[in-house]
Specification:
The structure is a single chain. This protein is an alpha/beta fold. Strands 1, 2, 3, 4, 5, 6, 7, 8 and 9 form a nine-stranded mixed sheet that branches. About 15% of the residues lie in helices and about 25% in strands. It contains four helices and nine strands. Strand 8 and strand 9 form a beta hairpin. The radius of gyration is 17 Å and the shape is globular. It has one domain: 3-Layer(aba) Sandwich (Collagenase (Catalytic Domain)), CATH 3.40.390.
C-alpha cells in the first residue's frame, strides 16, 4: 500500500542545482534537463487548471495535486481551467490539465512545457487521451492515476526514475510500467529530486504571470508533427521527448507516453 509522505526536512542534505540542471547527489538523479519554475522563495504554489470531464478524471487530478503537495518545496492547488480541452493551450504561470478524445494518434498522455532563459518553465499543459482511456486496457483508475501523476510531475521538471517497462515497479508514478497497480503516486525519491531541483532560488518568478497562450495559434499540439524535433526515445520506443524552437531564446518541450496499442512510435 502506498503511504503518502509528509513534508520532510530530514530526507537528505541537498546540494544546489546548477544552471545546467546537474543534481550533485547519488540519491536522486531524475531532473528533466534542469527545467524548473523560477521563483524567489520556497515553498511555492502552482495552480493546476481543471479542464477535466467526469468524476474519474477529477478524482485522478485531485489525488495527484494532493500527492505532489507533500513536497517540501512546492504546493499545488486545483483551480478552474482556462483551456479548451480539445487543444489544451497552456496559460502563463500555471499548468492546464485536460482530457478529451484526441484520436487514434498513438499517444496516451502528453506533457508540454514552455521554456525561457534555457531552463525556466513559464507554463505547462497536460493532455490525457480518452480515445485510449475509453478502451478496456486503459479504462481503469490505476492507469488514470499513473499517467495523470506522471505528466503533472513532468511539468515541475521531473524525469522518470526508470524507463524500462519490463522492470519491477519502483512504487512511483515516475516509473514506466506495464502494470500500474503500485505506481500511482510519487515516492520519497521524487520528493528528494524536487528538493534538489528547487534548492536554487531565482531573482524573478515565472509563476502566476497572467493569462496567455504558450503556442502560436497555427500549431496543433494534438499532432506529433507539431512537437518539433525528436531528441530522446526510451526503452522500446514507448516514450519520447520532442523540442520545438519558438524563437527569441524560447522553446516548448513535449514528453509523450505512447499507448501500448493503436499506433504511434513504439
Amino acid at each position: 500500500m502506498f503511504t503518502k509522505f509528509p513534508r520532510r526536512s530530514l530526507l537528505v542534505a541537498l546540494a544546489s542545482l546548477t544552471l545546467a540542471g546537474v543534481a550533485t547527489t547519488a540519491s536522486a538523479t531524475h531532473s528533466w534537463g534542469g527545467y524548473h519554475w523560477a521563483r524567489t522563495a520556497n515553498p511555492f504554489t502552482i495552480k493546476l487548471g481543471n479542464n477535466m470531464s467526469g468524476a474519474a478524471w477529477t478524482s485522478a487530478l485531485n489525488t495527484a495535486s494532493s500527492d505532489w503537495s507533500s513536497s517540501d518545496v512546492l504546493n499545488t492547488t486545483v483551480v478552474a481551467g482556462l483551456a479548451n480541452p480539445r487543444n489544451c493551450k497552456a496559460t502563463a504561470g500555471r499548468v492546464e490539465v485536460c482530457n478529451s478524445t484526441y484520436g487514434n494518434n498513438g499517444w496516451l498522455g502528453v506533457a508540454t512545457i514552455s521554456i525561457t532563459g534555457g531552463t525556466h518553465i513559464t507554463r505547462g499543459s497536460v493532455k490525457l487521451n480518452d480515445t485510449y482511456f475509453n478502451t478496456p486496457q486503459y479504462n481503469t483508475s490505476a492507469w488514470r492515476a499513473l499517467v495523470t501523476c506522471q505528466e503533472i510531475g513532468h511539468t515541475f521538471g521531473l524525469d522518470h526514475q526508470d524507463e524500462n517497462f519490463s522492470n519491477g515497479n519502483l512504487g512511483t508514478c515516475m516509473d514506466y510500467t506495464n502494470n500500474p497497480g503500485s505506481n500511482q503516486h510519487p515516492n520519497a525519491h521524487d520528493y528528494q529530486e524536487l528538493d534538489i531541483i528547487y534548492a536554487h532560488l531565482d531573482s524573478t518568478t515565472t509563476i502566476g504571470q497572467g493569462a496567455g497562450n504558450s503556442f502560436a495559434p497555427d500549431l496543433d499540439h494534438n499532432n506529433p508533427q507539431s512537437w518539433g524535433q525528436l531528441v530522446k526515445q526510451s526503452h522500446g520506443g514507448r516514450t519520447a521527448v520532442y523540442e520545438l524552437d519558438t524563437g527569441a531564446g524560447s522553446k516548448t518541450v513535449t514528453f509523450v507516453i505512447w499507448a501500448l496499442e493503436g499506433g504511434g512510435n513504439r
